[in-house]
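pipeline/complex-builder :: batch 7 item 3
reading input block
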Amino acid sequence: MKLFFYHTPEAVPPDGSPNLAIAIDVLRATTTIATLLAAGAEAVQVFSDLEALTHTRESWAPKPGLRIGERGGQKVAGFDLGNSPLDCTAERVANCRIFMSTTNGTRALQRIQDTPIVLAAALINRLAVVQYLHQHQPETVWMVGSGWEGSFSLEDTVCAGAILDSLLAMEQQPLKNLAGNDEAVAALALFQSYQHNLLSLLEQASHGQRLLHLQLDNDLKYCAQTDVLDILPIQREAGILVSWSLRSSNPKQTGSGQI
Ligand code: MLT
């Protein structure tokens, strides 16, 4: 298994395709997606275009649905929710289809949506992602950071490093066997430097500071937690993510299922 990390969707190679791709947007889209599914949302459908989102949501009625819209860290006017994971309570979202668009995270998911298997990762569900990788042994994995409008982000990079760090321990493999590019090695080094104080890194990050200016300190605290949700968002069909339960797998498959 080789893991490649790309800082932004724009950095992903234009040709070639992995067996499995992972979208990462710690602040806050993939943290929010994992939280939505943990709270019982039926599925999360992602869009880059707000009009297409609204049209699809209207067609979904009368089945229960909610619109989540964020631009620049703030809620889109007229939408039900912004992109704060703290708003994603079971009372609000259980059994609803979530129609979601954010500045960067939903773009990362769209960039990789044609990959055979697509997952969404954040710090809060890192272990669920790593257990899936260990169990299914995909030969090539692309981890794709969302960044901010095409630029590098500390928070997505440290999450890629957290995934690699945990996988190294689980696979009992040397780094050269698992890291596919220099960006993956650098991400691991960043995680190993900050693993005991991830909140300080998120507060240092440019988007973390943007959120702090919006008084969203509690969002950063929530997003900085590791392995608190046993939830694995997996793409069921293009742009639609559901929860894949680790408990439904056959533990005997660990390490045997090539992808
Ligand atoms: C993004 O998509 O860039 C983020 O999720 C923005 C945010 O909600 O903070």
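note: Residues 2-244 form a domain with the putative 2-phosphosulfolactate phosphatase fold (CATH 3.90.1560.10).
queue -> next item
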